[in-house]
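ARCHIVE CARD
Drawer: 12
Card no.: 0347
Subject: one protein chain, sequence and derived structure
Cross-reference: see card 0346
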Amino acid sequence: MKADLLKQFLMSEGATLVGIGDVSEALSREIVHLNRGIAIAVNRSLNRETVEILSRLQGLTVEWLSARGFRNLSIPPDSDRRKDKLITKLYKLFCHKTAATCSGLGWVGKNGLVINRQYGSKLSWATVLTNAPLVPDQPVRESECGDCDLCVTHCPSGAVKGHHWSLREPGRKLVAYEKCAALKNVRQSLEGKPNCGFCVTVCPFSRNGKKKAVNG
């Protein structure tokens, strides 16, 4: 089942990127039947307005799938983790980075965030899991950060470890998020965000849209 119509529809409604990933290997027993991950991204910082945009796009996706008789499960944007909702219990079962990388929309950078070649780490994500037999996009299997260590050297808390991500080792710890949280608590309130943003702003892909990372 081709996904072009769904992608075109969502992008006409405000999505910046839409991809389809075969997420079979990343699913727990509870959701193993939902083996397609629809990754939805908007080129905006994650705030209340962005969450509303992503939630609307998820709703449109659910309507599209349900109208065709397919099961689905929406994984909300990250900021909703703070809310006391039943869906928040599923975050440990699936994360947006998996759908994004499996659908070929980017890789996980040394900064622990999804990096897209055109938009860098300046994308906010939502995911809809489904059993619809959508033809998946080609996944990104390896990091494309190269020798660039700017996020490592500029991290004020020393949280970025400098490791390369790989689809073969999706669970490898790239960032010490407890250090991010400690710095956030000392410096200012960042509305629940897990980082201060330096690792986003110094990334060459985020700053210049370059097609290759630079040497650090």
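Annotation on reverse: The first strand starts at residue 17 and ends at 22. Residues 150-208 form one domain.
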